Amino acid sequence: MGEVFDCEIQARYRDVNLGGHVDNVEAIRLIDEARIQFLRFAPLSADPAVAPGLLADLPSGVVELVGSQRVDYHREMRFQPFQPFLVRIWVSRVGGSSFTVATEVRVEAGHEPALVAQTALVLWDHTAQASWPHSKAVRRSLERFRGEPVALRA
Question: Of 148, 94, 141, whose CA–CA distance to 122 is shortest?
Fold first, then answer.
């Protein structure tokens, strides 16, 4: 398995439903926030001169669009004040102009994931109004974090 990106996302009071656990819609927001951090803002290099984020080598005007997303919930995600959710993300598939990221969210360290997700993304060139084929640099970045897909229920 390649490298993984780990981060913490703090649950907000508004994320909690009447049952006291994180609502499924807010769980999607949580994994979106972690994915955006990974792709665009994470300091993935020890060199401060290197731009942050896995997609640092994308040209201007090329963005990532979610093509599909599958989430399996395995356990309740109860809100605990000042206890962030632990998110682990990696790349599980690299195509020609698309890729898939795998995500696991844990409520506490050492616990099994509360949810797992696979999110397929397409790189989109706004100028050409078409998918953008991976450059060598982008493919190299994606491959650095490549690992197995998460196990989703049939």
Answer: 94
